[in-house]
Structure formats: structure tokens, C-alpha cells
Amino acid sequence: xxxxxxxxxxxxxxxxxxxxxxxxxxxxxxxxxxxxxxxxxxxxxxxxxxxxxxxxxxxxxxxxxxxxxxxxxxxxxxxxxxxxxxxxxxxxxxxxxxxxxxxxxxxxxxxxxxxxxxxxxxxxxxxxxxxxxxxxxxxxxxxxxxxxxxxxxxxxxxxxxxxxxxxxxxxxxxxxxxxxxxxxxxxxxxxxxxxxxxxxxxxxxxxxxxxxxxxxxxxxxxxxxxxxxxxxxxxxxxxxx
Length: 241
Prior knowledge:
Oligomer: single chain
Radius of gyration: 22 Å
Strand content: 5-15%
Strand order of the largest sheet: 2-1-3-4
Shape: globular
Structural class: alpha/beta
């Protein structure tokens, strides 16, 4: 055995020039379920440890991805790719997520009251973003201090820049909670144009944002937002008001 060890120590092992994944320690025998923020580790695993913060592109992708309060797998992949290209570290990514959570908190505080359902949505968004309940508490405190007596015009839709106008093309895909004919009729009532996916399509409404349907795949290739029924209903209300 000793000659083998000696030979192994003397062997000129090639130098590894990649990026090592983050090391996590835990007691022997301890098992944990899949963490909700596990996808964040993919952002770190191939990034340099020192890079200039370039957050604009990442924040733009994050805002669009979180429009419906749900991160689909293709949206996580887009965030991972954008973070890698920008050279963001895990800490920088979490700082960006913290700032975004403050914006969500400002939306919840727009009417001066954070309801139980709004708090639940903030907690859920924080979990998706790799944050915790105490981060929500801090975000609400910062949002309250920032808002003061100001009135916050608009809500999450305006904050993220997604809006619809007459003539915009929308596409529906998947088995929805309401018959597709009803959604299409509601869309036509406010001047929207239901149809198929083209480069001129404004957005796709999907029963499942992770949909692998041909429409959803084509929309992703064109960079068209894919949103849930609930968010589309909010957009319709905005157009009707």
C-alpha cells in the first residue's frame, strides 16, 4: 500500500481551472429534502468569486420572471444564465433579490395594510428567491419607511412594466380553470386579439407556466412572457378600469 500512496503523491495531477461548487457541511446521518432555493446553487457553481456587479440585466429578467409570483423552470434557467454572464456572486444575487422583495413589500403596503394573504404571498416569494421570513419583516419595515405618506400609484404590474392595450395579441395554452372560449371572449371585450404564437404576440397565458406545449416553447424562443391565469385576470381588470 505504501508504494501506491507514494506513487499517488508524486503523480503530477492536472490543475483544475474550473469553478468549485459551494461546500455545505451537515451532521452525519442528516438528510434534508430538496430546498426551494436549490436552483440558486446553480448560479454559483460556475461563477468567478470576484466580478464587477452588473445587475441591470439580471434584475430585468427577475422582474419578468416573478410577474405572476411563480418561477417556472425555464425562468430559473434564464436567471442562472444571466447571472453567470454578468459574473454575479451568490451574495450579489441575494442582494438583488432582497431589493426586489422590498419592491413587493411596497406594493403590499400601497393601501396601508398588509393582509394575511398578502403576507403569505410575500413569504412565498421570499422562499422562491432564497430568502426567509425575517427578510420579509425587514423588507416591510424598509418599505414602510420609504413610502411614508407617499401614495404608491400602480402595483406589481406597473412596477414590472407589463401592460396590455387594445390590439395586442394574446395566446392561451393548457387546460385552464375557465373554458378557453370565456378567456378569449373576455380578451376581445377589451380589444385584445386572441390567436396563435407569432413574433408579434404580446404574451402567452398558460394553465401551467412550466408547460411544455408547442405554444409555450415557441413563446420562449421568441422571448414572449408566459403568465398565469390569475395575472391575466389582473391585467384585464386594469384595462377595464
